[in-house]
Amino acid sequence: MVWKQVDNIWEELYQYLIDDNFILVTDKNVYNIYKEELENLLKGREEIYIIPSGEASKNLEELSNIYSLLIQRNIDRKGRILCLGGGVVGDLAGFAAATYKRGIEYVQIPTTLLSQVDSSIGGKTGIDFSGHKNIIGSFHFPLITLICTSFIHTLPEKEITCGLGEIIKYGLIQDYNFFKYIERNMNKVYSRDMKVLSFIIEKSIKIKLSMVEKDKLDAAIRQNLNFGHTVGHSIESFFGYTKYNHGEAVILGMMYESNIAYKRNLIDKEYYNEIIKVLSPLVEQIIFSNDEINILLEYMKNDKKNKYGKISFILPVGRGKVNIFYDVEEELIIKAILNDYKKE
Ligand SMILES: NC(=O)c1ccc[n+]([C@@H]2O[C@H](COP(=O)([O-])OP(=O)(O)OC[C@H]3O[C@@H](n4cnc5c(N)ncnc54)[C@H](O)[C@@H]3O)[C@@H](O)[C@H]2O)c1
Ligand SMILES: [Zn+2]
Questions:
Q1: Which-ligand-closest: CA of 228?
Q2: Helix, strand or coil for residue 250?
Q3: What residues are paired with 274 via a beta bridge?
Q4: Strand 105-110 vs strand 80-85: parallel, antiparallel, or unpaired?
Q5: With the CA atoms of 267, 272, 278 and 284 taken in that order, what torsion angle do they form, in degrees rounded to the nearest 10?
Q6: Which end of the chain is more exposed for a tag (fewer CB within 10 A), N or C?
Q7: Do residues 10 and 24 lie in contact, with contact meaning Cβ atoms separated by under 8 Å?
Q8: Distance between CA atoms of 84 and 145, rounded to whole angstroms?
Q9: 134: CA distance to ligand 2 center in Å?
């Protein structure tokens, strides 16, 4: 897995335009903000495809539009797709690259904090189908991931929070000192301090890669990356992917799952409170009713990560350490979700 941080992405990208044997996929917001730079880069060439921004574009129709452009531009097996955007562009155009002519090269140029620390690393590509998220996909590793922190300057604050969700997760699953560093420097992330961002991004990628490289196909240690995601995914599904973005749902998920860990005596009260103190100001918590929690439980039971019919949970078991559990009692899940952090 090759990646690097670059200062001037537009200069760097010239090297990746191979004759006319490439297309560039981006989304409408990114295109609008970086139109001038893109026009300079492509110099009137028509190899660009712009998807509407947002999760709803990770679908078969947009995939088919990308295939059509690839065919129309005569892209051959030595061709390449440049994916410029957040995780939506990366997953969708990466999947087009994985499947067109049985797989061509692609370059990830992630423009959101979340995609820089997470989705552009690890080779997972795919689309949503019939209400099921990431249900069609493939492992296909990019030729290279080019990270340019300057993109974060134009990113809305809500998207910074989403990236932070996954970044804090890395600290909690593998590196307690990193978690404390993020806690101390949170304001600098929001004020887009490039030095702090660059350090945090590099550290996050290294933690993710240390797991991906041991477990490329997601069968063992890579599952630790799912901390916060069992409850998080159920919350996303519950709201039909509208109220909370993925990273925000993961923040809520980490709070609930830490509460389960605390109630099971896997972590002490002091550590539990440290986690809640960092996470709770980031996202507005909602209080679910009993009926709503039953719906969340149904989503958890259908999670593709489950085994032997049991809901799988990654739970903290110490500072910067997690483990996988298949035996969390339903009662405990319900209690954790009913917990109101503001009252603690
Ligand atoms: N493949 C993986 O391993 C993996 C991991 C995590 C998440 N994902 C996927 O990633 C997706 C979420 O990615 P995301 O959070 O990047 O969302 P996104 O791609 O929807 O981007 C979020 C928003 O930010 C805008 N944007 C992007 N870059 C910008 C910039 N520099 N300035 C201003 N606005 C900008 C986008 O137009 C969009 O509106 C989900 O579909 C999720 O399933 C994949
Ligand atoms: Zn995630």
A1: 2
A2: helix
A3: none
A4: parallel
A5: 120
A6: C
A7: no
A8: 10
A9: 12
Q: Which residues lie closer than 8 Å to 213 by C-beta, 6 or more apart? A: 1
Among 26, 106, 119, 227, residue to substitute to test ligand 1 (most atoms within 8 Å of Cβ): 119
- Whose alpha carbon is nearest atom 22 of ligand 1? 86
Q: Is the CB of 110 under 6 A from ligand 1?
A: no
Q: In what order do the strands lie in the sheet with 105-110?
A: 3-5, 144-147, 105-110, 80-85, 22-27, 48-51
Q: Terminal CA-to-CA distance of the chain, rounded, Å?
A: 43
Contact 138/151 with Cβ under 8 angstroms? no
Tens-digit pLDDT profile for residues 142-153: 999 999 999 999
Identical fold at 3-154 and 157-343? Answer: no
With the most atoms of ligand 1 within 8 angstroms of its CB, the residue from 115, 117, 132, 135 to mutate is 115
- The answer to whether domain 3-154 has CATH 3.40.50.1970 is yes
The confidence score (pLDDT) of residue 45 equals 83
pLDDT at 269: 96
Q: Is domain 157-343 in CATH 3.30.420.10, yes or no?
A: no
- Residue-wise pLDDT for 113-134, tens only, equals 999 999 999 999 999 998 888 9
Q: Whose CA is nearest to atom 2 of ligand 1?
A: 119
Domain ranges of the chain: 3-154, 157-343
CA separation for the pair 139, 111 (Å, rounded): 21
DSSP classification of residue 34: T
Mean pLDDT taken over the chain:
94
The pLDDT assigned to 302 comes to 85
Nearest to 313 by CA among 246, 268, 236, 259: 259
pLDDT of residue 215: 76
With a 6 Å cutoff on the Cβ, whether 150 touches ligand 1 is no
Residues 6 or more apart whose Cβ sits within 8 Å of residue 176: 319, 320
Using 70 as the pLDDT threshold, list the residues of the chain that sit under it: 341-344
